[in-house]
Amino acid sequence: MANLSRDSHYVQPWHFDCRLSKELPDDNPIRGRFLASLLACTFAAIALFYAGMTIYSYSILKKEIAYWEQVKRTNSTQMAELQKVITVIQSGARRLNEIHKHVASPLPVSDFIQEVGRTRPANLRIDMVEFHDNAAFIRASLQESPQRASAQLSQYVAELRTNPRLRPLFSNIAQTSMERNTKDGTINVEITLKLKPVTP
Amino acid sequence: MSYRLRQLLALMKEYPFVTTCLIIILIAGNLSVFLNLENTELEHVQNRVRQEGAVVQKTINASPALRSDSQLIESALKEIDASLVTEDNLAENYGYFYIIEDQSQAQMGELHQNTAPPNEPEAKYRTVPLSLTVKGTYSQVFNFLHRVETGSRLIKIASFTMHRSQPTGDAVTLAMELNMLAYP
Questions:
Q1: B45 to chain A nearest CA, in Å?
Q2: Can you spell out the DSSP letters for B45-61?
Q3: What's the pTM?
């Protein structure tokens, strides 16, 4: 506090203040006018810019619409002609689908029989090949001891599973029966091949 | 003239620049609002015409492929129509298999045309079921089967059984259930 009272001595003006403050014009209105003009000018510029952008978008949209309308107009004759072609294709595709539903065979039978005959082991005698209810059955006999017959058959089934012509047709290939024929000592076997569902 | 209006006019006279700016803001604002509403409408229209135009361009570009597809489908359907059978025409339906019998030299046993299932409404095709048996050597029967599958008539083999005719020898018997594509 002692310091403050001592320093207050230096705060005094160093010369006499001769201004007639009450008679001087007020400078606040000038400052206010300038600020108002600045603000108004800024907002006007923003408003003009925004309006300009909107007009620009409007013109771009109009141009683009005109372009696509022009594309449609110039190609309208060709499109009408192509529409007829498309109708022909659609009705044709419907008919072909119907035909496919009626006669598409899930199994190319002659190819299947040929492939089974071609790949069979030499000592495997095929007695019957059957196809019904989306499954094919191969019934065969082997003139071998049960152990050798079992091993040979497992190998044959594995070969059928990996066969490039049969693999795309069947979802499952498995040996479903194996029994000894007491009359002639042969081993009778059955292999079942389940077809994959047909898709158009 | 009211006091307030006079005051406003006085202010406008006093601040002409600010007044001009305010008028510009007012006009630009109204214009922006109006055009924004217009643009929203135009954007919908533009999306629609652009999609339609793109479809047109895509279709025009694909026109050679479309034309060739259409010709391909038409010729395929003509070929199929030429191969169709009529359910009532038994002689022709059986005759087709007798021709194959001659060509393959296999011996045909039974040949029956079974009752066709009822027509589906608006169906353009139907199938005529047949059952037959063939005997002969393996190669003759296989030849018969191959000709049935790849012949001029559209046939689906619904089921078949191929077995040895006797325990020994080369003779085999084939029994088949077929579906022939026919006129409705």
A1: 7
A2: HHHHHHHHHHHHHHHHH
A3: 0.69
